[in-house]
Amino acid sequence: MTKLGIIGAMQVEVETLLGEMEGRTALEKAGSTFYEGNLAGLPVVVVQCGVGKVNAALCVQVLCDCFGVTHLVNTGIAGSLSAELDIGDLVVSRDVMYHDFDCVHFGYPYGRVPGMDVTAFPADEALLGYAFAAAEAVNPGHTKVGRIASGDQFVAEPGVKQKIIENTHGLCTEMEGAAIAQTACRNAVPFVILRAISDKADDSAEMDYPTFERIAAHRCAQVTRSLAKQLKAAEDA
User: Fold this and answer.
1) What's the predicted TM-score (pTM) here?
2) 8 Å CB contact between 178 and 96
């Protein structure tokens, strides 16, 4: 039976989904609250992981060990790295990599974690397709599929942004996706990362971020709800 784990970094990213869940129960684990119930008829577990890679990876492992999730989606907001992405646009991960992991002096490609056989962690093709279809339904013509770059840094300087672009060729940057992807891969759980653009990841971020954060997060929630509905339909087919 399909059971979807849904991870958001901040309360604004998950509160809409929590309000739509049925039969909701809560469990405190490792400093986070995990809400189990049904969303669009599908068994789900929703958790606000907190900001950053360690918090994100920790929640994935709890979802795998304690709840037995079969699929994972990480929903949230990100800063644009592409001139083609504007505030409110959506990005679905083709793959995800770290922009702040550097072991090149030991012979590894930039971003590669020693012991892993890929530099960028590929999203599940079926989940990618569901997420893209859902995103296009919510915001037609404003969804791109590509690489997401993650690191423990809120990017707000043009120079930092340019370096991330050069090192990762990512479409957007955020603070959890690659850690979620790596942990999902280690547990052999299919995943997809979904991001709504809330700022331009440059010196305009301070102005744009508070204004657009809630709108972008709610848009992600709409897409996640639709993704859950599609997973349920696929299981019932």
Assistant:
1) 0.93
2) yes
